[in-house]
Amino acid sequence: MPKLCINIDHIATVREARKTIEPDPVIGAKIAIDSGAEGITVHLREDRRHIKDRDVFLIKQIIPENILFTLEMAATDEMLDISNKVKPGLITLVPEKRQELTTEGGLNVISQRDYLKKYLVGLHKNGLTVSIFINADKEQIKTAKEIGSDFIEIHTGPYAENPCEAEIKKVKEAIDYGKSIGLKINAGHGLNYTNTEAIAKLNGIEQLHIGHSIISKSVLFGLKEAILEMKKIIRH
Q1: I need a labelling partner for 204 at 20 to 30 A (CA). Which of 99, 161, 169, 188 fits?
Q2: Does residue 100 carry a pLDDT above 80?
Q3: Catalytic site includes residue 72
Q4: CATH number for the domain that contains residue 44
């Protein structure tokens, strides 16, 4: 059964809507852990539109050793420095555009091969485990392995937008291929209470990173209830 890693970015989105101090994503992380989350995920964007540096460092302080702390970030010098100070359990490299509402696709590893290979050396030198958020494309996955990535996170957005057998097949083939060349596999993006079950059934996924749908449900029903319902779906 995949581990459920809760992306708590949108707790910070609500906070930043009023530029105030609440709701605090650090407290949200604690509640999520107490409610059964097996991991906490945050995306520290270059524009700091939701999660702040302060959130990242405080979450690292309060998170137990048995809970995975994943830091999503762009492959920049600033983020390399921050990640080496925070030392999260997992780094996930993602693409970023200032004008996007959310991450729009997987990182193009092929076009940045040489740069990313050197960047991963900097992360690994400090003992960090690295994942790359990537489309379900064999050539991209192959390149991720060649440059030294430990994990890949399959971008499930296309499936979430069009939840059909053809998209499920693409995800399954990406998982199978990634495992065959020695990668560990995560998945996420656009997963919610109606489309997660089909992904969770696929063999070989280590972690599901889910955020927006869980935080959205928590606004109406509470974070504990939202997490327990998602865990029930994954177990089923």
Answers
A1: 161
A2: no
A3: yes
A4: 3.20.20.70
